[in-house]
Amino acid sequence: EYVPLDQINTWKQSQSTEVTEEEEGKDLLRDKVSLYKGDITILEVDAIVNAANSSLLGGGGVDGCIHKAAGSCLYEECITLNGCETGNAKITCGYDLPAKYVIHTVGPVARGHVGETETKDLTACYQNSLELVKGFGLRSVAFPCISTGIYGFPNEPAANIALETVKSWVKENHDKIERVIFCVFLEADYRIYKEKILQVFQDN
Ligand code: AR6
Q1: Which protein residue's CA is at the shortest distance from atom 19 of ligand 1?
Q2: CA of 59 to the centre of ligand 1 (A)
Q3: What pLDDT, in 10s, does the model give residues 67-97?
Q4: On the chain, which terminus has fewer CB atoms closer than 10 Å, C or N?
Q5: pTM reported for the whole predicted model
């Protein structure tokens, strides 16, 4: 029922292209990223990221799924966090989830508009979540497409921000992270990520 990390292909593994001689033995960025389509709550990773709201007390979308799968102890711990500002992130235990931790981040309410503030806030969600991963000594993390559901951030620019922000961070923190999984839920996002991940992670 659960999907362990070693069953999630890295982006390099899922590419059909052969590894060139030049690449052989090199620690490439695309060894550290995966594109996974499906339910984030079944991933057996160190942490999954929740696209929460500022109350951190649950809601619909992926937030609702995570609270349902984690059980009421997650809600009890979330009460003690006193909410979270847009762009920030807070960590809790994973409880009944296969993931050890949940990182709750609050994406911008975009309603179709991508301006400076929305871009800055969504970037901060990915950065601050990754900083928590590092701070807690975690090695694997899965992200949903933050803000692109109920909060209405357009899918393509959101994917660009997710991929570019993760790429820069992984580059700078290479030894701190083993795997970042982009967990998409919708076919439309899968197609967008599949195309862009190739461009963004093609070379180091
Ligand atoms: N696993 C992975 N991704 C999922 C899952 C799942 N089980 N379920 C939905 N998604 P959304 P937001 C995808 O709306 O836009 C909540 O009420 C979904 O298809 O969950 O940041 C919170 O409490 C979409 O691609 O989050 C907030 O009030 C992505 O997750 C508000 O919604 C994000 O969609 C946050 O809105």
Answers
A1: 185
A2: 9
A3: 999 999 999 999 999 999 999 999 999 999 9
A4: N
A5: 0.96
